[in-house]
Amino acid sequence: MIMRPDMSEYRAMAEDALRLSRATGTRRVVSNRGPHHAQAVTDVLVSNAEASLSFLCRSFSAEVFDTARIEEFLDKPGTRLNVLLDGEIGKGCPTALAGLSEHMAGDDPRLQVRRLAHASPIHFGIADGRDTRIETDVASRKATVVFGDAAFAAAAQQRFKSLWDAARKLTAAEIAPAA
Predict the structure, then answer these.
(1) Are the CB atoms for 153 and 132 separated by under 8 Å?
(2) pTM (2 decimals)?
(3) Long-range contacts: 20-26, Cβ < 8 Å, 24+?
(4) Is it the case that residue 91 has pLDDT exceeding 90?
């Protein structure tokens, strides 16, 4: 019987790759699959982001995104989180956005959320324009994480921006759970 690593091992693999990337100034690649691995890697991206995060995902699932970690990120001065959804909030899984709507207030909100009119064949996340997680199989959450590659992140950010510009802006009321 094959023992699967628990989430702490997944997180340690991602943290090691991130540390090596920062220490050597070179790109590091980590492959991952499944919701636990997706959560561990996303936690590393969020925990180490200094200024900006952008995610294209189905519904910002609480299964993958830790609301407390996102809140810690948004509480840092000058941070911004852009979330682009290609699915309905709350369909099949609770959303981690529900407790974050206060960050959508004001003239320059730290959290902005938009929805695509259609499903995307891939999902991805970009942290600080240098670290990227590309999910090429959204059903199994099979993904590749590339730490420390600004050119790769810029290409993902360009794709994100083109989709973002075509998406519909959501309000705080639209991301809150239905009563």
Answers:
(1) yes
(2) 0.91
(3) 20/147, 21/131, 21/147, 21/148, 22/147, 22/148, 25/148, 26/148
(4) no
Length reported for the chain: 179
Residue 137: its pLDDT value, please? 84
Residue type, 165: D
Percent helix, strand, coil in the chain, to 5, is 40, 25, 35
Q: What angle do CA 47, 29, 61 make, to 5 degrees?
A: 45
What confidence tens digit (pLDDT) does each residue in 122-153 have? 999 999 999 999 999 888 888 999 999 999 99
Q: Strand order of the sheet with strand 28-32?
A: 28-32, 142-147, 131-137, 123-127, 52-57, 80-85, 111-115, 168-169
- Identity at 121, one-letter amino acid code: P
SS (H, E, C) 101-121: HHHHCCCCCCEEEEECCCCCC
- Do residues 95 and 148 touch, judged by C-beta distance below 8 A? no
